[in-house]
Amino acid sequence: MTDETPDSLIPYDEIVQEALRAVVGRVLGSIEQGGGELPGNHHFYITFKTAAPGVSIPQHLKERFPDEMTIVLQNKFWDLEVRKEGFSVGLSFNQIPAKLDIPFAAITAFVDPAVDFGLQFQATVADMAPEAHESAENDGVGEDTGNGSPGDGASDDDDDGGGSNVVTVDFGRKK
Questions:
Q1: Sheet holding 166-168, edge to edge
Q2: Model pTM above 0.85
Q3: In this structure, is the dihedral angle defined by the CA atoms of residues 124, 19, 155 and 92, taken in order, positive or negative?
Q4: Which residue range(s) make up the domain with 33?
Q5: Domain presence at residue 175
Q6: What is the rounded distance in angstroms from the CA atom of residue 112 to the CA atom of residue 29?
Q7: Quick one: DSSP state of residue 7?
C-alpha cells in the first residue's frame, strides 16, 4: 500500500464548487422574488473576478479593479435580476449609477455578516493571481444607516467576524 491518493477521474472539486455557487444563486433569487428587499439585517459582500468571462462592468471600474472587486448589497441597490448562469444588479459609485453583470463562475467569495455565513470559491479563471486593489467606494460605504450596519458599497475587506461559518473547499489537485 502507498500513502499516495490516486488521481480522481471524477471532478469532485468542480462539482462541489458549482453546487456552492448555486447557493449564491438561490439566495439572490429569493431576494429578487421578494421584491429586492433584504430581510432583517442581512446584507451580502460578493467578491468576483473582474476579468472573468461574462463579467460586464463599466470601464472606469474595470480600470480601477483589474483583477477582483467586492460589492455590498444592502440598502442602495436596484434591478436585481438572477439568471441560471449569473446575476445583474444596479449600484451607485460616487453617485454614478452602474449596472454590473456577474456570472456565478466569476464569484470568489460570498459573505452575509449578519449571520456570520460565508463561502469562498476557487477562482475559475485560470492562474489569475489577485492584485491589491483599493475600495470601490460606491455610495454609502461606511455611512451610518441607523441600524448599526455600514452602508452599501464595495470593499476589499471581507472580514466576516472570525469566519466560524466560512466554508472553503480546496481539494488540492496534484500537478
A1: 153-154, 68-73, 44-49, 107-112, 117-120, 166-168
A2: no
A3: positive
A4: 12-168
A5: no
A6: 15
A7: P
